[in-house]
Design brief:
single chain, about 5% strand, mainly alpha
């Protein structure tokens, strides 16, 4: 489980983009920071979903929450594809880079959503 508070701001991210010995580029993420943690709204939504899932009494209730989570994951994949492009695909040097016109704020928004999904 990944942290959701600023107290773990020095935790290294698994979402590191290698600079191959070069200085970090703006889209690189080598450490998590306050921009990557769940917003209070996302944290509340996650808490509600976990509560609903853990209190489900039958398969129908589980399927309802599963459909909502599946839709969220699908949206997350769409967001990833709109924010990042894959470079050096099918090599040992594969990286994700921001698409033209995307900003580090777009990147951070994706990371927050990803935290929500894997939290």
């Amino acid at each position: 489980m990944l942290p959701t508070s600023g107290s773990s701001a020095n935790l290294y991210s698994w979402m590191y983009v290698s600079g191959r010995g070069n200085p970090s580029t703006p889209e690189s993420v080598s450490e998590l920071n306050h921009n990557h943690f769940l917003s209070p709204e996302l944290q509340d939504k996650l808490d509600v979903m976990v509560s609903i899932y853990s209190c489900a009494r039958n398969n129908n209730e589980l399927e309802e929450i599963f459909q909502e989570l599946s839709a969220f994951v699908s949206g997350l994949m769409d967001k990833r594809n709109s924010v990042f492009e894959v470079r050096n695909e099918n090599t040992d040097e594969v990286v994700g880079a921001l698409r033209a016109g995307m900003t580090i704020e777009d990147r951070d928004s994706y990371i927050r959503d990803l935290f929500f999904c894997i939290h």
